From TrEMBL:
InterPro entries cross-referenced by the UniProt entry: Acyl_CoA_acyltransferase, Diverse_Substrate_AcTransf, GNAT_dom
Organism, scientific name: Arthrobacter glacialis
Pfam families linked: Acetyltransf_1
Protein name per the record: GNAT family N-acetyltransferase
Lineage: Bacteria, Bacillati, Actinomycetota, Actinomycetes, Micrococcales
GO molecular function, one term: N-acetyltransferase activity
Keyword line: Acyltransferase, Transferase
Length: 170
């Protein structure tokens, strides 16, 4: 049985380690720029905007075995908040024990209790094990939608460009 709890400051190094493990799995081993200090500030600073739940090890004294990191989003159509799951990760040696399902159920329970409209996330199209797992829970892919991202030099260039006032027609 999984013991799911809200992440504590002492969990930050283990969470960051699993973020690195996830990056390796997703074929982006050098992409993580996050640090213990940055993650701690974002999770536990004066006005946290991200949240995390963790799976305790069944062996006392062992590090956590999984985490879900999430933040709130907003549906203009529904007129209410939702949860965006940024990362879900369970250590390979503990997969199949219901930990991922327990983490997602925790987020679903939070959404239901708070009256949120949905829990949503992205998954790489080649990650068949994750896709099959999510479908087994009743989640459905958002056909017809594409995820877009503006980052790196393109974000810098676009964000630094001088704004041109809109033309006003009389």
């Amino acid at each position: 049985m999984s013991l799911i709890r809200t992440a504590a400051p002492s969990d930050v190094p283990a969470i960051l380690g699993m973020i690195h493990d996830l990056a390796v799995y997703e074929k982006e081993p050098d992409a993580v720029k996050n640090t213990v200090e940055m993650l701690h500030a974002n999770l536990f600073g004066s006005n946290p905007q991200i949240f995390a739940h963790v799976v305790d090890s069944e062996t006392p004294g062992e590090p956590i075995v999984g985490f879900a990191l999430w933040f709130l989003n907003y549906s203009t159509w529904e007129g209410t908040l939702g949860i965006h799951l940024e990362d879900l990760y369970v250590r390979p040696g503990t997969r199949g024990g219901g930990h991922g399902k327990a983490l997602l159920r925790t987020l679903a329970q939070i959404a239901v209790e708070r009256g949120y409209a949905r829990v949503e996330w992205s998954v790489l199209d080649w990650n068949a094990p994750a896709i099959n797992f999510y479908k087994s829970l009743g989640a459905t892919p958002m056909d017809g939608w594409h995820v877009f991202r503006l980052d790196g030099p393109e974000l810098d260039a676009f964000g630094e460009a001088q704004l041109v006032p809109a033309q006003v027609q009389a």
